[in-house]
Amino acid sequence: MVFESRGERTRAAILRAFVGLIFRNGFDHVSVQSIAAEAGIARSTFYEHFSSKEDVLRASMSQFFVVLARCVSSDDQPLELAKVLDHFWENRRLTDAIFAPTPRRILALSLSEMVEKRLRERSVELVLPPRLGAIHIAEAQLALVESWLRGRAFADPGDMAAALHRSSLASAAALVRAKSPSA
């Protein structure tokens, strides 16, 4: 039997409250006070776990984004990728809440930081600074997922997973500086 600590339960309550509020009211109309009230906690308790509503947004998507970031460094498609895309597809009615300008900007930064970490772990020289390469890849990943969720074109989630993995891996490979031919 696994027991959650009080802190873990509080953090989970904050995340649940945030998700409910963002999908009802939109990110811009959610405040720390409204999250705390919805979670049944004091604002001071909120700040023991998160620094801002932006921090909660990043935390709520991190389990999905870590899988997307893994696409740039794994030759094999991450096993969880299809599950992540299935989850996104099943919850596509919530696309407007996540891809509104402010949350999308925050999430793009969060994903690019995860991708940058992956790029830096590789022992290769890149033609661009890792941060710029990571921004490029993260924005491409989000654009593909958003377009798909908005119904601009249909694709099977499994095919989306394969395309997302291959295009992310190819983008990362394209950033590697070519070795100069030896004389």
Brief synopsis:
It contains 9 helices and no strands. The chain is an all-alpha fold and about 180 residues long.
Task: Write structural notes for this entry.
This protein is mostly helical and 183 residues long. The chain is built from nine helices and no strands. The chain has helices at 6-25, 32-39, 43-49, 53-70, 81-90, 95-99, 101-121, 130-149, 157-174. The radius of gyration is 18 Å and the shape is globular. The chain starts with 5 loop residues before the first helix and ends in a 9-residue tail after the last helix.
Give the SSE layout.
Blueprint: H1 6-25, H2 32-39, H3 43-49, H4 53-70, H5 81-90, H6 95-99, H7 101-121, H8 130-149, H9 157-174
Element-level helix/strand string = HHHHHHHHH
Form type: globular
Largest sheet, if any? Answer: none
Strand content: under 5%
End-to-end separation in angstroms reads: 64 Å
Given as residue ranges, the uncertain stretches (5+ residues, pLDDT < 50) are none
Q: Please give the number of β-strands.
A: 0
The average pLDDT score comes to 94
Instruction: Specify the number of helices.
Output: 9
Number of structural domains = 2
How helical, in percent, are the residues? Answer: 55-70%
Rg (CA only): 18 Å
Task: Return the structural class.
Answer: mainly alpha
